[in-house]
Amino acid sequence: MGFLYKIKDYARIGAVIETPTFYTVTEDYYRQGTSTFARASATYDFTTLSDHSVTTPWRFSIGASGKPFKHLTLAFQMDYSDLSETEFSNVADIGYESELNKRIRNNWKNAFVLAGGMEFTIPKTPLQLRAGYNYQTSPWKRDEGNSDYNVKTITAGMGYLFSETFQLNAMWGNTNYRTFHYNYDPNATTPPVPESAVRTDEDVSQTYLMFSVAYRF
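Above: the chain's sequence. Below: its structure in C-alpha cell form.
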C-alpha cells in the first residue's frame, strides 16, 4: 500500500507500507563436521527435516526525487523495519519455537536503510553519469553504537542512450562492513573456553562491476 505525489514536473514524494509476509518452509538440513586437536578429535553428523512458518515484520518506506536543474536528478529513500517482530510458528517442538522467538526478541532490533543517488545528463550528449550511496544499519542489538557493523555501499555508473528505446549501462560498486562468528560454542566445554579463542572477526569488502542493457517498448 502506498502513494505517490507529484509536484509539477520537477519533484515526486512517495511512501509505501508493506504488510507482514507469511512463509511456509519445508527444511531438509544436513551438516557434517570433523575437528582435530592436539589431544582429541570429534566428528558429528546432523540431519533434520522440519516444517514451520515465518512471519516477517511490517516495513515502512518513504522517498523523494527531484530535478533541481534541467540535467540533474536527485533521489532519496529511507526504509524502516523492526526485525524483532519476526516470528516463527507451527514448529513441531513448541518449546523450541518459544525459545527461538525469545532469542529473536532479545537479540534483534529495528533497522534502517538510507539510500541516495544522483544522475547527471551531460548537455548535448546521450551520456548519463550516476552516483549513489546506501547505508544499512545492523539489526543486531549487540552492534548498537558501533557503526563498523553497518553495511555501507557506494556506487558509480554511466549510461549511454543509443536511441529513444535502447540504452547501455555500466556500474561499479563497493560494499564494506565488519562481522564476526563463532567457530565453536565457548560454553560447550567445562570449564568454558575464552570467547576470544573461538571467535573470528571479519572485515568484508566487496567490489563489483555490472553491465546491463535497457530496451524501452
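The chain has a mean pLDDT of 91.
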